[in-house]
Design goal:
Layout lengths: L1 H12 L9 E3 L33 H10 L3 E5 L2 E6 L2 E6 L3 H14 L4 E5 L4 E4 L2 E3 L7 H6 L11 E11 L5 E14 L7 E6 L3 H14 L4 H9 L8 E6 L2 E6 L3 H14 L2 E7 L4 E6 L11 H6 L9 E10 L2 E7 L9 H14 L1
Helix pairs in contact: 5-6
């Protein structure tokens, strides 16, 4: 009993190791069936980012302004990392088709199963997984080893979405976005729990970008250095109105605004079903994060007045630019201005993430 008491006391003092990442998927490999609403998507837009400015009159001015704007980017060989605010992404001088399989292998090597694997869309998404490194390494667990490892768990789950897009120069841009869930008690007796969304973690995104750089040929030390030296630029992002409707105004040109809006959409629970860069449109749907005993997701509460939480809500998010300023607005599924309160909420959520 004395030994057991000592072990319990020491385990209570053990600090949580938050500096390590060791994921293990919480489910079995799913059947990678294409959802019904994805089967009719065009197969000609694989990774596509068609070159072309939204405002022809401001194209030359935009190029000059972009040249004068400091870009937070550092590179090594054919891989570089760019950063704007708390968002980072990789730019790789290789065809997207040759990167798909290595990126897919990368996630599996890091302990994840893929719940979505749509190379025609340039999107893959992991299943929910648990970071086992967050489990305290107390004396009891260290002594028993893996014998009772399955008895230990954390109240957090993570999933990651990876999106590959080809830019106008033939490079491939790789975006990694994080989504998290946390298990919380619903009563004072602590006998029931539900899973709720928790904020995206930019540092987890940065860690996996660093690991992916290593997978693509950059050394571990060089990758750490590149991620650490990517200084954040801070263009302004403000919520305004245009024709009586809410818009998000970004103090940057189309290319960077397009990238940042896409990453913000991934982070905040939207699935980019298709995109038309030439027209500056993301076709998105929202599907609430689900887990056993979960309550309706944050966005499903905001964007749906019914109890049919499994019905996806669809929108079009447009990015229009003139020189070095861009405006983001919300359209309904038919392409008409979204006049409901959802437009205001979406604009605010995107603004909060981009800031």
């Amino acid at each position: 009993m004395a030994v057991l008491g000592l072990a319990v006391a020491l385990s209570a003092c053990t600090a949580l190791e938050t500096d390590k990442v060791d994921y293990r998927s919480t489910g079995k490999a799913p059947a990678l069936d294409i959802p019904p609403d994805l089967t009719q998507l065009s197969k000609d837009t694989r990774y596509t980012m068609v070159d072309g400015a939204v405002s022809a009159s401001g194209y030359k001015t935009g190029q000059i302004a972009a040249a004068k704007t400091p870009v937070a980017a550092v590179s090594l060989g054919d891989v570089r990392i760019e950063r704007a605010g708390n968002q980072r992404w990789l730019v790789v001088n290789r065809p997207a088709e040759k990167l798909w399989d290595p990126v897919k292998d990368f996630w599996q090597e890091n302990g994840f199963l893929l719940a979505m694997d749509q190379n025609n869309l340039g999107i893959m998404e992991t299943d929910w997984a648990e970071n086992r490194a967050k489990i305290p390494q107390d004396i009891i667990r260290s002594s028993l080893g893996k014998l009772f490892d399955s008895l230990y768990s954390t109240p957090e789950r993570d999933k990651f979405r990876t999106r590959l897009e080809r830019d106008a120069n033939g490079n491939t841009e790789i975006f990694i976005s994080h989504r998290g869930m946390i298990e919380v008690y619903t009563s004072e007796k602590k006998d029931q729990t539900v899973w709720q969304p928790r904020p995206a973690d930019p540092e987890l995104e940065a860690e996996f970008l660093r690991r992916l750089m290593v997978r693509l040929g950059v050394s571990t030390e060089q990758a750490k250095s590149l991620v650490a030296s990517s200084v954040a630029s801070k263009p302004s992002a403000t919520v305004s109105t245009a024709n009586g409707l809410p818009v998000l105004v970004l103090d940057e040109g189309f290319d960077r605004a397009w990238r940042r809006v896409g990453l913000a959409l991934d982070r905040t629970g939207f699935t980019v079903e298709d995109r038309d860069r030439k027209q500056g449109i993301y076709f998105v749907r929202y599907v609430a994060p689900t887990s056993e005993n979960s309550e309706p997701g944050f966005f499903s509460k905001l964007f749906s007045s019914s109890s049919k939480s499994n019905e996806a809500t669809k929108f079009q998010i447009t990015v229009k630019s003139n020189a070095n300023a861009s405006t983001v607005s919300v359209l309904d599924v038919m392409g008409a201005p979204e006049t409901s309160d959802s437009a205001q909420r979406i604009v605010k959520v995107l603004a909060d993430d981009i800031k």
